[in-house]
């Protein structure tokens, strides 16, 4: 079914902001497109560089002078995002750096550097938490039996993880014990770098209406989705679907589906690597599966190039958009559940 009740002119006008993850249609379901706004240009923002050898240009134009080169995990401050119009708005989003120069926005992950108070009381069944700094070292548990990973890892802003305890080193630094959900490997992460997610933040949204009237429609050609209630659009986001890479077809399947399985956090592993940093992804946030083969909506911290096919088949979303989908769709996941399966989830139409 085609999306008929979205004004195409308005969509193109704002699609650059959608794809940059700069806009969300409110934090609760039922909000309308009246929440559209342009990027705030007053406050300095922080970005994490996603790849090596990223050029900073004198102007928002790849033909202009190169001022310097950025490397993976460099942090840059920027003043605002600038959308330069052409046939594909997303490709023309540039960040004006605070010191000088411009960098394409797709090469930056927008991040914060939020330091948190440690929490001493961790439930025995685990507590969901998120990384609130650009990146942090996850120190491997060298004493755990059957530990598959033997080297320290890096966790990134916006990723979610289950923590199971609190420890302290000889220097007096507190660490949360994180257990990843695929092989149950254990790591220790600076407690000030993680924020515990309260149960009320995991409460489902828009629960009073007829849940069977909800549907998400994914337009693969235009690379965006719209969520509807009673055929009224309530949410919109740019996305990255699966790509065709060489002889390997990773494109997202078309058809009618239902959300049938959710996880607030998932350690994803890809053998069909399509980028330098997407083969092993810890703490992928807000995962809502809608096919039996494992295709899902989920948050994305390893790229920021939405409105382009960039995935292994899943629907990559800005992290706030994935969280919105996770909380708005059926089935509802109890706050302490690591995963939840149901055959009566929200409809998903992919075309």
UniProtKB/TrEMBL annotation:
> Which Pfam families does the entry link to?
YkuD
Q: Where is the active site?
A: 298, 314
Q: Which GO terms describe its molecular function?
A: peptidoglycan L,D-transpeptidase activity; transferase activity
UniProt keyword list: Cell shape, Cell wall biogenesis/degradation, Peptidoglycan synthesis, Transferase
Which InterPro entries does its entry note? Answer: LD-transpeptidase (IPR050979), LD_TPept_cat_dom (IPR005490), TAT_signal (IPR006311), Transpep_catalytic_dom (IPR038063)
- The answer to whether keyword Cell wall biogenesis/degradation applies is yes
Q: Which pathway is it part of?
A: Cell wall biogenesis; peptidoglycan biosynthesis
Source organism's superkingdom? Bacteria
Which GO biological-process labels does this protein carry? Answer: cell wall organization; peptidoglycan-protein cross-linking; regulation of cell shape
> What PANTHER family does UniProt report for this protein, alphabetically?
L,D-TRANSPEPTIDASE (PTHR30582), L,D-TRANSPEPTIDASE YCIB-RELATED (PTHR30582:SF2)
Q: What is this protein called?
A: L,D-transpeptidase-like protein
């Amino acid at each position: 079914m085609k999306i008929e009740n979205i004004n195409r002119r308005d969509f193109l006008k704002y699609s650059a902001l959608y794809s940059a993850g700069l806009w969300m249609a409110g934090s609760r379901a039922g909000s309308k497109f009246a929440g559209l706004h342009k990027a705030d240009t007053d406050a300095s923002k922080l970005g994490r560089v996603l790849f090596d050898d990223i050029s900073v240009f004198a102007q928002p134009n790849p033909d202009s002078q190169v001022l310097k080169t950025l490397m993976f995990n460099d942090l840059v401050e920027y003043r605002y995002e600038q959308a330069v119009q052409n046939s594909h708005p997303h490709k023309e989003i540039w960040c004006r750096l605070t010191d000088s120069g411009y960098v394409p926005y797709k090469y930056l992950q927008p991040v914060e550097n939020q330091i948190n108070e440690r929490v001493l009381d961790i439930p025995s069944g685990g507590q969901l938490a998120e990384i609130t700094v650009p990146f942090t070292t996850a120190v491997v548990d060298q004493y755990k039996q059957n530990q598959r990973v033997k080297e320290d890892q890096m966790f990134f802003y916006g990723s979610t993880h289950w923590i199971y305890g609190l420890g302290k080193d000889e220097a007096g630094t507190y660490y949360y014990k994180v257990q990843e959900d695929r092989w149950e490997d254990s790591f220790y992460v600076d407690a000030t770098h993680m924020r515990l997610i309260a149960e009320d933040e995991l409460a489902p949204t828009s629960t009073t209406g007829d849940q069977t009237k909800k549907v998400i429609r994914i337009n693969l050609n235009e690379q965006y989705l719209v969520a509807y209630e009673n055929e009224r659009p309530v949410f919109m986001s740019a996305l990255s679907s699966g790509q065709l890479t060489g002889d390997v077809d990773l494109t997202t399947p078309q058809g009618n589906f239902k959300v049938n399985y959710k996880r607030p956090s998932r350690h994803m592993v890809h053998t069909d690597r399509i980028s330098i940093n997407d083969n092993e992804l810890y703490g992928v946030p807000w995962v809502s599966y809608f096919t039996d083969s494992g295709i899902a909506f989920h948050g994305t911290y390893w790229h920021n190039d939405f409105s382009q096919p960039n995935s292994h088949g899943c629907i990559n979303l800005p992290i706030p958009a994935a969280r919105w989908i996770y909380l708005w769709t059926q089935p509802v996941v109890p706050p302490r559940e690591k995963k939840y399966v149901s055959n009566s989830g929200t409809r998903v139409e992919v075309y």
